[in-house]
């Protein structure tokens, strides 16, 4: 981290007269100034000022109302904030907390704060009080405060330390790795250190032997441990934490204990050196540049896991499934992600997206489906977590990028392994019930109102018995209304279903309106896909004019009649296989609106006219008696001196002919 930092910007704030400018000037010149301007220009401390060799820019500020806008701008650009108060004026400390810390919080700054008591030399003897006593409750209230320190510019007491701690707070922050209230490592830090320990435990025996410890030391600090240093480390751990050492070496608990000691002794840079050497950033996650993510050339391409990675995941599942019952519980899932920053499946959209067993455990299919969904929606997150759980060198080739959907339509076939189906429909159309059925959830008589775009994923066999992963994405009615602005969503869609309550005419009307809107948008954006109508709640019967209304829409749009289902009666008419079949044939079941049909007809007439005019021109100008083969026609066109004139005439003729024909047909149909 220190090596990648070019500069650290330190913004010094506080009330007027608390010693901001004197502090900066004294730090830069190592002398207390006799005279000083109200606000100093930015002051630079060179790279060799502190051991980490990262230069600092110290920015002085004014507390006046006239300078407020500039002050706020400087705070937003800060890497760290130094907040001053005057040791001889207790009221300035109170104001620092009640005013300045509130200002910093309102700006939502994600930077550390160093609280500095200046003018230590002016504080009366009777006012002497322990800094820890005063500041401990303050630091508990304001977690962004990294360090508190008192100094005197006049007597040059601890002035360099102020900006040393400011630099350290940026390069080696406490907050991400250590909880000062509980005096313990934070969960993310523990998870990262667990992973590092596992990577260093080359023989996998659960302990670091002398050789492994030396390799770790050399990797992180460019030098192996001396024999007496190895002995000393083990003795310290053995004395304080007996279970930290066993006959094979330093255990994981002992490894964690050592890091805690470094932090407690103020040597955060040691733990940070370890974390950064293994690729972690300030949020205790792997740096983005270490996570390979496949690049899509077009937005209608997908990212899928390779067969090799799927086999790797199956192996992981078998290891976790210790009782060999074909499923894993929450404890095993937590174990799986114990070396990742967080469990990604604890959050939407992955948490409740897959099938569970009767004992509420995750079967193998559900396990693989979660990985497929994560890869489909968030390839970078999937890639990172594959690395966290130990994929290793294979991570660079863990994914494949599919062909574009437009290419699949031209080929009239899609060979993807994962299909995404958008589920449209008005409220109470049965969308949620269908998703529940898909992942084997029991039917509920209570209608669910879904405001978020819920997902359900499962494995479906196609007509040839090949397993495909199908992702159903429920689109709430209100979110479907702005579908025209969601080009990426349409580009990612392989197939869509439009559901309605078959017993209610209003539900049908709303669904057809949605269908027309989606079809129009798909035509305009070029992201067309198969669409299926689904008549839900067939157990309730149909409204009186349903047959006529359905026939009209299907005829006008050129799509198939609805698939009738009843989630309540578990009568689903093989709907999920039919969805997969539609996705595998992306050129079929695409609704065509009147506008789209007009565009297609116009294009057909243009193409036809172009062929006609080209043929007429060649036949007119070709030498009599010549054989009009394709080769002869092409050669003649290239050699003809009147070609440019003919092409111009042809284009004009084509445009007029096509427009007149299209206009005439449109008027006739009207």
Automatic annotation (TrEMBL):
GO biological process assignments: mitochondrion organization
Compartment(s) of residence: Mitochondrion outer membrane
InterPro entries: EF-hand-dom_pair, EF_Hand_1_Ca_BS, EF_hand_assoc_1, EF_hand_assoc_2, EF_hand_dom, Miro, Miro-EF-hand_domain, MIRO_dom
Protein family per UniProt: Belongs to the mitochondrial Rho GTPase family.
Keyword Transmembrane: yes
Domain (EF-hand): residue spans on this chain: 308-343
Name of the molecule in the record: Mitochondrial Rho GTPase
PANTHER family: EF-HAND CALCIUM-BINDING DOMAIN-CONTAINING PROTEIN 7 (PTHR46819)
Primary subcellular site in the record, as a coarse category: mitochondrion
Key word Repeat present: yes
Cellular component GO terms, alphabetical: mitochondrial outer membrane
Keywords: Calcium, GTP-binding, Hydrolase, Membrane, Metal-binding, Mitochondrion, Mitochondrion outer membrane, Nucleotide-binding, Repeat, Transmembrane, Transmembrane helix
Protein origin, superkingdom: Eukaryota
Organism: Kalanchoe fedtschenkoi (Lavender scallops)
PROSITE patterns registered for this protein in UniProt: EF_HAND_1, EF_HAND_2, MIRO, RAB
EC code: 3.6.5.-
Bilayer disposition of the protein: Single-pass type IV membrane protein
Residues covered by the Miro domain: 5-172, 416-585
Enzyme class, spelled out: hydrolase
